[in-house]
Amino acid sequence: MAAHGDILRKKVLLWCLGLFVLVHLSAAQSTEKKLYIVYMGSNNLPDAEITTSNHHNLLASVLGSAGTAKTAIVHSYKHGLNGFSALLTETEAAQISAMRGVVSAFPSVSYSLQTTRTWDYMGINLDGNGPWTSTDFGKDTIVATIDTGVWPEHESFDDTAMGPIPQKWNGECEAGLSTPKFQCNKKLIGARYFSAGYEAMWGKMNVSDPTVTVSPRDIEGHGTHTTTTLGGSRTRNVSFQGTLGTGTARGGAANSRLVSYKVCWPGSCQTADIVAAFDMAIHDGVDVIAISLGASSVDYFYDSIAIGSFHAMERGILVVAAGGNSGPDKATVINGAPWILTAAASSIDREYLSDIHLGNNVTYSGPSLNTERIAPKSYPIVDAGDIPAFNTTSDDARLCGEDSLDAEKVKGSIVVCAPGDMFGIYYPEVEVHAKGGVATIIIDEDLKSFAQVFHQPAVTVVSQGVGNHILAYINKTRNPMAMMTPSLMHLGAPAPLAATFSSRGPNSVTPDIFKPDLTAPGVSILAGWSPAASPSEDPSDTRAFGYNILSGTSMSTPHVAGAAALVKAAHPGWSPAAIKSALMTTAKPPDSQHKQNSDGGLAWGSGHIDPKEALDPGLVYNTTFAEYNTFLCSMNYTDDQIRVITGNMTSNMRCPTAKLPANNLNYPSIAAVNFTKPITVVRTVTNVGAPESVYKVEVHHPSGIHVSVRPKTLKFSNEKKVLSYAVTLSPTRTQPWRENWVFGALIWNDDSHRVRTPIAVGPKMSSPFL
């Protein structure tokens, strides 16, 4: 591994070469074939083969022959949506993009991957009575993950107590090329894999490579982790390496049926394959989809997850997607389309810590998943910057990259490393162990603040101040010594806290649709793992684990999807928008103790998920398809484009002359940016509680904003189940929202339910996509 200075020099050299090569490549770009996704909106044809034939004919009109078109096509999207992916030149893609009936044509890109106590922590326990028992833990709902596949033999997929597979299931279990043979059962009822897009980009996979299996089998671990969190069967006495997180593991919807769609392969999750997975999930008859993937925000109809989710929503399927791991920076949230339920990550009341006892009787604790034991005694402690290997600078040595340390000075010591933004690219503890060190203290300058699995004894300190104190002790002491303990589990930590890594709002595509939607446990989550995957992501770590502990919005996403499956089981006729509303309006906002910092709702959205309350929300915001049409008009799509997207090909579909802003969408939250004068938005709620209900409004005004609601009382009856109200936001003399986001809420209260709609008002910003 190159030292940090070498990496920077190489980046500069490559940049210079890039300028030179760019000039020479410009002429070649028109003939170079790339994988493009051609999106053609909704598919209303009853015969999928006719749709595929139409794709061939359209492509043949550009490429010159039907044979060439058939060879070029990689995927034909023909079930829930209409389109295809194909190898095209930039010129050919532009020609197709201009054709009538084509919404967009854009390159396929690679998306990145973004429990024993968590469900008890949220109040969904196995014993006792509660509203969740009426759902029988999501019995017979069909929930799917689009991820890295699954390990089908895992005990969390035990089907002993499962009845017959629901008749609505229309999918398959694709075995592929897997050893042992991939098999499904009555719990894991289906699995498919999508690799054509990946292979079109990177060539045919080498099936003799042990790190590759062309089947739905998971060899990376991520998909098994998310799927078991979502709906794994009850499994008793599980733990992380027999020492941490001991308890009963199960998914939130423990009696649901599981489906896995594998779209990720070594180093890449191609968007062309992701769209194919959505298309097939719609065909197969799933109820809820969890997708813990994503990239930077783009226009919704150049975004494979937004496209797939739109057509899933159209067919009654709720999609829950990860909000991203780019926090704490603002405006980093991804998967922000309003028809997606976007999940942020928070902590639970459990953490894993190792103690560092310095020779001056000062003790520090840091997050760690370190079960490798060292003798309980004091060792010399050294600063890696003081022990560089030959021809290595002090700064590079402090990174603890490969071959950066002097073995003679490392041997028998605890070594302090500060890898900075290189942490996660290579593994400091591996270099320390290779040179004879006994343990590693990692100063985590990125403040990830969550426990990580280490191959060798190590701990992170997530405060630069603590790191400086440790280094000062080393530098000011003649013979500095330290002792480090293995990781221990601690209960009772302040929670929930927004995870530092969790991406923050606002939504950069449509700022007036506030995102993320809510938060759920995503820090140090114990769930099933593929024994073929490295537990620490270090390629040299060949340990085989049945369970692993991970952090990320990838982990919060299946928690939200599991809760959605419970609501779906209790209310099978509810739309995706109604289920989403129930989860958002019953979420618990952070109290003053847990707000942590000024970003407030930028991290939390509506609040922390409360699955019990969501089963009986009282009122729901039920977004209609006509309202999505109006929303798409606000995105500056043409009438023709919206007809194609929605499948509404009638000539009377017209955008209003004066386009309504996005915040008029009937959404369970209210947001406003570029706020200079009073605005009024309208919301419509449907009563799903007692027929004769009276709700009164209470308002929490954002700082510098006066909120008025008309009417102040909603009276429902058997005849009046749907009512509307208007909300006017007016600036006061103090205007803090010109510089920072401010937050409030309106709550409809009938003494049995508190239906909370958050209000967010922020400074001037514009979307580059509008």
TrEMBL record:
Record's signal peptide: 1-28
Positions of the Subtilisin-like protease fibronectin type-III domain: 664-761
InterPro entries according to UniProt: Peptidase_S8/S53_dom, Peptidase_S8/S53_dom_sf, Peptidase_S8_Ser-AS, Peptidase_S8_subtilisin-rel, Peptidases_S8_3, S8pro/Inhibitor_I9, S8pro/Inhibitor_I9_sf, SBT
Keyword list, A-Z: Hydrolase, Protease, Serine protease, Signal
Keyword Membrane: no
Domain Peptidase S8/S53: 138-592
Family to which this protein belongs: Belongs to the peptidase S8 family.
Protein name: Subtilisin-like protease
Organism: Ceratodon purpureus (Fire moss)
